Recover the amino acids of this structure.
């Protein structure tokens, strides 16, 4: 048997199980905040006299109970009692305190004072930041890759989270031999993750990996925090930044494709997949429609995007008839392409120090030296592991590259992973069969490097041109190189 007791000492719920376990139904969330406990403690019998089990401790963690107490019985009579409660910070790798068993009638633990002190300490450890718990995120990587690789990938995930409006409250990394198909990580590690989220006051858990529909549902069932993966985060960023008709269509189509296998009805798991970070934008209300309507909407979106593609094709044809060569700026997201376009053309295209600030292609006509007029086009930034649905949805955007006479690959020379970023962009260019187009590598943000770093960059990229997108005179060699590669 079990009792759930509130802080006033009154029974909240009486539960009856079998000889080995007790099922605790879903509990209300009215009082719950990310750094608050539920206000209930669990007292239950162990009729075979066993101590607190791992299952008992997992229930305490995932239900955020004030404490759990096992009343150990033998031959139907109470013999001893054992209490456990959460800790505000890890102590020697432990997330909870498990007290030694004592005679049941000699148990003397002031649980009310312990819980009050615990919640006060959780509030202090989370800081006094004005960011609400719903916008505080714990970033998680569970992968077979080495830890160093995961750390670098989490840095990019942190940038993505910041762009989406999340505040990264902490990180957690686990290297595994094989991903758990049910939860992506083991149940024990999942409990550690829940405690870390509680200690960090995080209302959102963001995984750097793509989660299957089953994994998201299973994770949503064991934790009361919002669970989103890398793809959802990127979709949310695109949804926030899409302004044009075509951009909104592309985002909605990608969101629908992501949501389609996850449309399993309005349950606890789905309720955490909609709204806010990871469920925003033109497609947010579509997450609750049935599969048939979603497929019908996808069909209509594809037709509308085909029209967008056709209109852009007609625009490119008109440019070709006018004899204007096209120079396309490509590169990793946040490398400085839009800033470069603004400096060269005197435009005011949105340029922010955020990932994916530019979604729709922007073209500007410009007169270069030697009496040459060209069309300079800024494209959406690339990123490693871009969701496949987004790759297809943004094909209309990237088709601008098909008609490019010259491509300028803009790279952030000051980024610690510049080599990997350049390789990722070149890989996408090759996949699009555009490797025959003359490509100029421009190492942007050159002014941020010291002399030794410049020597290193020169050795790694001997054919690259150093530039600073904010410094117009530094762009003269780049302009000359573009002119030399233009068709006569």
């Amino acid at each position: 048997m079990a009792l759930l007791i509130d802080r006033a000492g009154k029974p909240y719920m009486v539960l009856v199980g079998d000889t080995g376990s007790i099922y605790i139904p879903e509990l209300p969330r009215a009082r719950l905040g990310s750094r608050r406990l539920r206000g209930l403690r669990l007292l239950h019998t162990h009729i075979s006299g066993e101590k607190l089990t791992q299952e008992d401790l997992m229930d305490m963690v995932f239900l955020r109970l004030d404490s759990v107490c096992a009343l150990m019985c033998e031959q139907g009579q109470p013999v001893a009692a054992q209490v456990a409660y959460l800790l505000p910070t890890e102590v020697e790798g432990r997330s909870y305190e498990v007290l030694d068993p004592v005679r049941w009638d000699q148990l003397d633990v002031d649980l009310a004072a312990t819980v009050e002190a615990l919640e006060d300490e959780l509030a202090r450890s989370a800081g006094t930041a004005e960011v609400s718990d719903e916008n505080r995120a714990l970033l998680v990587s569970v992968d077979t890759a080495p830890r160093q690789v995961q750390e670098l990938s989490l840095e990019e995930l942190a940038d993505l989270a910041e762009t989406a409006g999340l505040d990264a409250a902490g990180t957690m990394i686990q290297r595994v031999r094989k991903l758990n198909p049910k939860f992506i990580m083991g149940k024990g590690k999942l409990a550690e993750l829940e405690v870390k989220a509680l200690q960090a006051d995080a209302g959102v858990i963001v995984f750097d990996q793509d989660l299957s529909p089953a994994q998201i549902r299973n994770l949503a069932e064991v934790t009361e925090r919002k669970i989103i993966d890398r793809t959802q985060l990127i979709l949310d960023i695109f949804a926030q930044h899409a302004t044009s008709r075509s951009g909104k269509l592309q985002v909605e189509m990608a969101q629908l494709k992501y949501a389609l296998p996850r449309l399993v009805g309005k349950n606890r798991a789905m309720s955490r997949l909609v709204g806010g970070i990871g469920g925003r934008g033109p497609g947010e209300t579509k997450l609750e429609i049935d599969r048939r309507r979603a497929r019908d909407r996808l069909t209509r979106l594809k037709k509308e995007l085909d029209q967008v593609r056709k209109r852009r094709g007609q625009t490119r044809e008109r440019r070709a008839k006018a004899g204007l060569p096209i120079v396309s700026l490509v590169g990793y997201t946040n490398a400085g392409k839009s800033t470069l376009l603004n400096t060269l053309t005197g435009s005011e295209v949105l340029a922010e120090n955020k990932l994916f600030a530019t979604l729709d292609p922007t073209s500007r006509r410009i007169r270069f030296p030697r009496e040459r007029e060209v069309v300079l086009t800024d494209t959406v930034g690339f990123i490693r592991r871009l969701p496949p649905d987004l790759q297809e949805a943004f094909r209309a955007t990237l088709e601008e590259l098909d008609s490019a006479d010259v491509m300028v690959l803009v790279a952030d020379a000051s980024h610690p992973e510049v080599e990997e970023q350049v390789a990722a962009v070149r890989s996408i260019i090759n996949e699009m069969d555009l490797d025959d187009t003359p490509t100029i590598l421009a190492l942007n943000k050159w002014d941020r490097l010291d002399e030794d770093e410049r020597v290193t960059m020169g050795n790694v990229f001997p054919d690259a041109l150093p530039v600073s997108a904010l410094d117009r005179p530094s762009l003269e060699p780049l302009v000359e190189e573009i002119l030399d590669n233009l068709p006569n």
Residues 125 and 439 are 51 Å apart (CA to CA).
